[in-house]
Amino acid sequence: MNVNPELEEKRQQINRLIDEIARLSESQLGPMEYSGEFLQRLMTALAAPAGVMWNRTPQGNWQLLYQINFNEIGLDRIPNARVCHDELIRYMVQQGRPMLVPPNSGPVASTDATNAPSNLTQYNLLLAPVIVDRQVIALIEVWIEASRNPQALRGFMQFMEDMCAYVAGYFRNHQLRQMMGQQQVWSQVETFSRQIHASLQPREVGYLIVNESRRLLQVDRVSVAGRLGGHTEIEAISGADVIEKRSSLVQCMRKLFAAVIEWNDKLVYAGTRDESLPPKVLSALDAYLTESNSKLLVLLPLRDERETDKERPCRSAMLVECFEPHFTVDQLMARVDVIAKHAAPALYNALEHRRIPFRGILQPIADVRDLLRGKRLAWTGAILAALTVLVLLLILVPYPLRMYAKGKLIPKERQTIYAPIDGQVVQVMVDHGKNVNREQELVELRDVELLQKLDQLSRERAFSLKNIGRLREQLNMEGLSRAEHDNLRLDLIKEEFNLDKANAEMKILLDLVGGDPRRAKVRAPLAGTVTTFDLTDLKGRNVRKGDKLLQIARLDGVWEIELHIPEGHVGHVREALAAFFPQPLEVDIQLTSHPGVRYKGLLRKEGLGGSVEVINNESVLTARVEIGPELVQMLKQLGGGAMPNETEVTAKIRCGKRAIGYVFFYQLWEFFFEHILF
Q: Helix (H) and strand (E) counts for the chain?
């Protein structure tokens, strides 16, 4: 029997290709590398000009896994060829069986030629599904020239169906390897789960997730983001202690997180741009890839079981990136799914905890609640009830508010005598308790400097008089020119001015000392009694202008109280005066000389001073209080002079009624407001 050498060689070549495909299907290559090697051998065996292998994306869409000479088929050059081809792919997946489609034909008759499933090319199209567990997970299509023998095409279909069994075995083994990869991380995942559930701070939980996930997944970078109130924020990035929110990478990452969370589906990028993604997600992905070196990227929304509203975006998401991937997308997804199941509830708990307002206050309250169990609760309730009643009493019960102040009982008509010049006291003509009349001489002063000044002014006056006489004689001379006359007239005016100036200064100084510069008299400005004690040490003392010499007062006249109200009490006094206007405020008075008796007084609005002074290192406002009839009668009985001048007084100004708690603790409240709240 004669054997055609060419056919035998072809048969042996096909057998070798089948053996290579069988060994290739047992290898651990990734789906993309395996698809390339498989298609090359399949096309060599069929002598096909082009071939494609499709696989299903995690989103359920079909994407081109690997192609050889696909563009040479000319789908883009034929009107509606691409759309009809896509529809043919969908139809074939639904049927789940191999299919041979001749040129310009389709398996289904349709009146709509724009989207009918058909092959509009000039090639025979062979389609074969890869089925694993009754699901089409991949699709192989090969184009054959239309000139090939129809019987050979049926053999090609059988051959492709046999080869799909090898491909199915490869994907089954690939899934098994993924499951084995999951088993390897179970022990590590247990530790990972304990760590991420040990805290309720989103930032701390995020850092634990990204850093531990990076180690478990063996990837280059892991990031997590949280979403509260429609705002997405990057919580943590592996290997980064601080997140620079203004950097372009973080900004693009945040926008990508926000877009995918709103999309509410996982995003997988393995180096090929998926046009089926939503425009917003696709735009955010392109912007992020320009900033990142990722060759493999998975962004997975983390939805907790408690998030029952599936239409609402989830609270968090995780981004996994590989710059130089050493495993397939399916292997990575299998691991990420395991990590996500533990990360989702941990981040959900942390974000829910962040949403609780006043966490710092509620935590101590919870601790107190735990302590109040059994009898403690009853005792605590009783104490709280008593405190509540006490607080209500302090708030609701009115009580008179009285402002404390100190002062002096002094005659209303009084005047202090001050030294009019600098000099020495020559004689004191009065003594303590002596009654004096108005303009009566009290003290004699002598000032040597004043005498010298008067002597100098006298010489200047004589010199000016002499010059005036001389200038007048010269003006009466004949033969003076106009210029000489004007100069003499100007000099005369100057000398007359100097004379008037000297006379005025001498008059002022003489009036100041009473006409006698050697014995200047200080006179009483009003009739009254000298109240200054022990004037003997005043004689011979050198005094300066403005120094206090003595004081005179009308002890038999009207008396009043000069109060020094502390600055902190002035506000209450002014409020009370305004509230009771035009009525005055009552003042309770107690004299240090009569400690057992209380007198009454009146404080009117015009009795308050205009400025604050510092007395005994305390800021006070001076006020004048009219004394009541009881104190007036007592002073009359004592005869005026029997009452010591400037008797110390303690007073309480009645400022109406306020809450009893405020009356008792207003000083504490003012201190708290001024030093803590303000």
A: 16, 25
Nearest-angstrom CA–CA distance, 335 and 189: 10
Q: Which long-range contacts (CB under 8 A, 24 or more apart) does 502-508 make?
A: 502/457, 502/458, 502/460, 502/461, 502/464, 503/461, 505/457, 506/454, 506/457, 506/458, 506/461
Q: Which amino acid is at 76?
A: D
DSSP E strand stretches across 353-476: 398-411, 414-418, 423-428, 435-436, 441-446
3-state SS record for 113-149? CCCCCCECCCEEEEEEEEEECCEEEEEEEEEEECCCC
Contact 563, 478 (CB under 8 A): no
CATH architecture of 414-551: Beta Barrel (2.40)
| Greatest Cα-to-Cα distance within the chain, rounded to the nearest angstrom | 179
AA identity, residue 317 = A
Distance of CA 646 to the CA centre of its chain: 58
Rounded mean pLDDT for each run of 10 residues along the chain, 678 residues in total: 65 81 81 85 85 81 86 85 86 85 79 74 88 85 86 84 85 78 67 81 88 88 88 90 88 93 90 87 92 90 85 89 86 84 87 78 74 77 90 87 83 78 74 76 70 72 79 76 79 81 76 60 75 73 79 74 82 85 86 82 80 78 82 70 67 86 76 64
pTM recorded for the entire structure: 0.39
CATH architecture of 554-677: Beta Barrel (2.40)
Instruction: Decide: residue 185, CB within 10 A, 0-12 exposed, 13-18 middle, 19+ buried.
Output: middle
Residue spans of the domains in the chain: they are 5-182, 185-355, 360-395, 414-551, 554-677
